[in-house]
Amino acid sequence: xxxxxxxxxxxxxxxxxxxxxxxxxxxxxxxxxxxxxxxxxxxxxxxxxxxxxxxxxxxxxxxxxxxxxxxxxxxxxxxxxxxxxxxxxxxxxxxxxxxxxxxxxxxxxxxxxxxxxxxxxxxxxxxxxxxxxxxxxxxxxxxxxxxxxxxxxxxxxxxxxxxxxxxxxxxxxxxxxxxxxxxxxxxxxxxxxxxxxxxxxxxxxxxxxxxxxxxxxxxxxxxxxxxxxxxxxxxxxxxxxxxxxxxxxxxxxxxxxxxxxxxxxxxxxxxxxxxxxxxxxxxxxxxxxxxxxxxxxxxxxxxxxxxxxxxxxxxxxxxxxxxxxxxxxxxxxxxxxxxxxxxxxxxxxxxxxxxxxxxxxxxxxxxxxxxxxxxxxxxxxxxxxxxxxxxxxxxxxxxxxxxxxxxxxxxxxxxxxxxxxxxxxxxxxxxxxxxxxxxxxxxxxxxxxxxxxxxxxxxxxxxxxxxxxxxxxxxxxxxxxxxxxxxxxxxxxxxxxxxxxxxxxxxxxxxxxxxxxxxxxxxxxxxxxxxxxxxxxxxxxxxxxxxxxxxxxxxxxxxxxxxxxxxxxxxxxxxxxxxxxxxxxxxxxxxxxxxxxxxxxxx
Length: 603
Hints:
Blueprint: H1 2-45, H2 48-73, H3 78-104, H4 117-146, H5 156-266, E1 268-272, E2 278-281, H6 283-289, H7 300-304, H8 308-321, E3 326-333, E4 339-352, E5 355-364, H9 366-428, H10 435-460, H11 466-470, H12 473-488, E6 491-496, H13 506-526, E7 531-538, E8 542-549, H14 570-580, E9 584-589, E10 595-602
Parallel strand pairs: 6-7
Antiparallel strand pairs: 1-2, 1-5, 3-4, 4-5, 7-8, 8-10, 9-10
Helix pairs in contact: 1-5, 2-3, 2-5, 3-4, 4-5, 9-10, 12-13, 13-14
C-alpha cells in the first residue's frame, strides 16, 4: 500500500507539473505575441510626429520664402538685398529638401516616405504649386547672382507668380497636414483597440487556467500537504518521545556550565553555607579580594574585609537573612586596605534535599557610591547655605517691615498728629462773638482738614487696599495706578489687554500687588520717569504683568541688589515674593532706554 501510494503521488506530481508548464507557456506566449504586435505598431508610429512637424514647417517655409521675396522687391540697398537673396536661397533649399523627403523619405530627417493613397494624391496636386514657386524663386536668385546691379523690373513677374501660387500651396499643404494628423490618430486608436483586445485575451486565458488548472491543482496540493503534515507530525512525535530525555539532560548540563562560567568570569559570585563557610568563589571575586579558591576552608566575611566591624556586619546579614534572602549595599576592605562598596544579594537555595546553601551575587559600585556620598555632602552643604541665606533674607524682611511700621508711625505722629493738634488749638481759639475772625479761622480749619485727609490717605496708601480684598487684583492695581498718578503727577496708566477678571488665592493676590507696587515705586523714585505703563495679559495657564517706564534706566549686570530706601527691599523683596507664589520675575533695562519688569505667575 505504501509503495502504491508513493507511485500515485509521483504520477499526480508529474501530471501537475505538465499542467503548470502548459499554463505558464500559454501566458508567456500571449505576453510575447502582445509585445510583438504592440512594438511593431509603435515602430510604425515613431515617425508620425516628425512627419507632422516637417509638414507643418513646409507651410511656414513657403510663407517665409514669399515674405523674403516681397521684402527683396522693396529693398533699395544693394548690401541688404544680397543678404536677403542668400536667406531666400537657404530657405528655398530647405523647403525643397523637406518637400522631397516627405514624399520619398529621408533617414537623416526621420521621414519614412510611406504615404497613404490620399496623401500621395494630395502631393500630386501640391507639386504643381510647389514647382511654380520653386522655379520662380530660383529665377529671382539666379537673376540677382548674375546681375548684382539689379532692378526690380527684372523679376517682377516672378514675384507676382509666387504671390498668386502661395495660396494654392498653403491650402493643399493644410489638407496634407490634417490628413497626416488624422492618420496618426487612427493608428493610436487602432493600437488602443489592439491593447484592449490583447488584455481581454490574457484575462480570459488566466481565468481559464485558474478554473481548470490552478484551482483543481490547489485542492489536490492541499490534500496532499495535509496528508504529509499528518504523517510528519506522527514521525516528529515518535522522534521527540525517543530523544526528549537525553536532549533535556544535555541541554541542562550545557546551560549550567555556561551559566557557571559566565558568573565566575563576569559577576562577583560565591556559594556559602549558612554558617558563612565558603563552598565556591568565582574567579572575579577571588581576583578582587586575592582569595585562593583551592583553600580548604574560609569564612566569607574574613575574605571580604580586614576590619572587625565590617566582618560583624556581614556575618549578621548572613545570620538574619539565610532563610529569607537579602539585597543591599555592603562596605568591604581588601587585604591592601582598599575600601570597596558592593551591591550584594543573598539568595537561599537547596542543591539537594538535605543541604542548604546561600548564593552570593554582587557587583562593585565603589565609584557610584563615592559619587553618591559626594552628592549627599554637596546637597547638605548647599541646603545649609540656602538656609543661612534664607535666614538673612527673613531677617531683612522683618527689619524692613519694622522700618515700614516706624515710617507709618512717624508719618502719623509728625504729620497727621501735628495737624490734629493744630486743628484742636484752632478750634479752641475760636471766639464766636468776633464773627469776622471766626469766619477766617473756619476757612483755615477747612484747609487744615483737607490736608489731614490727604495725609491720612498718603500714610495708609501702602497698607492693603480694600479693593484687593473685596474685588481682586485687577481693581486693586487699577486703584493703585490712579492714586499714585494723582499723588505724584506722573502719567501712570493700567491696561488690561485680555480683560482678566479672575479671583486668585489671597496670598497670591497680595504678593502680586506688592511686587507691582514695589516696581511702580522704584520707577517713581529712582528712574526719573514721566510715564509708567502697567499692562496685564493672561492665557489659559499664565498671568503676565509688565511694568514699563521711560526713565533713565541702568545696567542690571552692574547692580546686584536694587533697594528702594525706606519703602522696602527692592529686587530682593520682589524676588522673594515671586518665588513664594511659584512665579518668575525678569528685569530688562539699558541706560537711557527705560526699564521693564515682567512678572509671570502660573494660573
